[in-house]
Amino acid sequence: MKKIVFLSVLIIFVSKLIFAGEIVVYNAADLVYAMEEIGKLYSEKYPKDKVKMVFGSSGKGYTQIVNGAPYDIVLSADMEYVEKLKQQGIAISEIKPYAIGRIVIWKRKDSKLNISKGIEIVSDTRIQKIAIANWEHAPYGVAAKECLEYYGYFDKIKSKLVLGENISHTAQFVQTGAADIGFLALSISLGKKLQEQGEFYLLPAECHNEIRQGYTILKNAAKDSEKYATAKRFYDFIQTPDVRKIFVKYGFVLPGEK
Fold first, then answer.
1. What's the rounded Cα separation, in Å, for the pair 128 and 157?
2. Do 143 and 205 touch, CB atoms closer than 8 A?
3. Which H or E run includes 25?
4. CB 89 within 8 A of CB 173
5. Could you give the strand order of the β-sheet that contains 50-56, starting from the edge strand earlier in sequence?
6. Considering only CA atoms, which of 201, 14, 208, 10 is closest in space to residue 101?
7. Keywords of this protein's UniProt record, alphabetized (predicted)?
8. Which residue has the higher pLDDT, 4 or 158?
9. β-pairing verdict for 22-28 and 50-56
């Protein structure tokens, strides 16, 4: 009987070693390509940890989290959302900035539109549809709208705007031809597929408010010690030099740097 009890304890102990904590990370949609590389790098360093990635608009992610969605970490494209989560007691770690986003105008390579005209391209009479993320909940949509207002184009072309649920969805409009041009995150435009398919113009940073992006551990991670340990490892990993290099590769500006 003692042998059976000992064996049971041993099996439980070994199982814990084999199956490390599993976490779900909610990412702003502009991270879809960067996080693919970051996730792979993390898995190589911590092969026993399981990390599930979810992508969407920062505003919708915030709403889901407030309503009890079981996410353990959130990386938001809008620092204000994570600050609100901290105020509501849902964020349980220090809120840290991880990147500052940039916005571009993107077109397909088979389009005859002249992307080098920059923001002036929106006044081209050949353009019927312009893709933009929904500014009600997508930070890059807010920035795009601010740029259009800054240059005095918003009211002139608002009837041509088609709204994407997030920045990835917005990119699909232009990729498929449902829109002639689109306002996209630089990080999306630097993905291999979009680089092959199109061209972009980087809009001046001064035409919109800074796209400050931040992240935090959420209280759902504290439900289990193993889960929290994994969440803390991933949280710390985001600040490592190798991860910061990936952010730079995809056009993000690192906080405190030019």
1. 9
2. no
3. strand 22-28
4. no
5. 50-56, 22-28, 73-76, 211-217, 96-101
6. 208
7. Metal-binding, Molybdenum, Signal
8. 158
9. parallel
Dump pLDDT digits (tens) for 2-53.
444 434 343 344 334 434 579 999 999 999 999 999 999 999 999 999 999 9
User: In this structure, how many other beta carbons lie within 10 angstroms of the beta carbon of residue 218?
Assistant: 25
Instruction: Quote the longest CA-to-CA distance of the chain.
Output: 84
Strands (E) in 86-197, as ranges, are 96-101, 103-108, 130-133, 161-164, 181-185
What is the per-residue pLDDT across 63-86, written as a single tens digit (0 to 9) for each?
999 999 999 999 999 999 999 999
Angstrom distance (rounded) from CA 3 to CA 10: 10
- The region that residue 209 occupies, defined by phi over 0 for left and psi between -120 and 50 for alpha, beta otherwise, is beta
C-alpha pair distances (Å), 223 with each of 52, 104, 204: 17, 40, 44
Instruction: Write out the binding residues for molybdate.
Output: 58, 167
Place of tokens 């929904």: 134
Structure tokens at 117: 């005209």
Upper half-sphere CA count for residue 183 (Cβ side, 13 Å): 33
Give the annotated binding-site residues: 58, 167
CA 196, distance to chain mean position in Å, is 21
On average, the pLDDT of the chain sits at 92
- Please state whether beta strands 130-133 and 161-164 pair in parallel, antiparallel, or not at all (unpaired): parallel
Under DSSP, is residue 91 helix (H, G, I), strand (E, B) or coil? strand
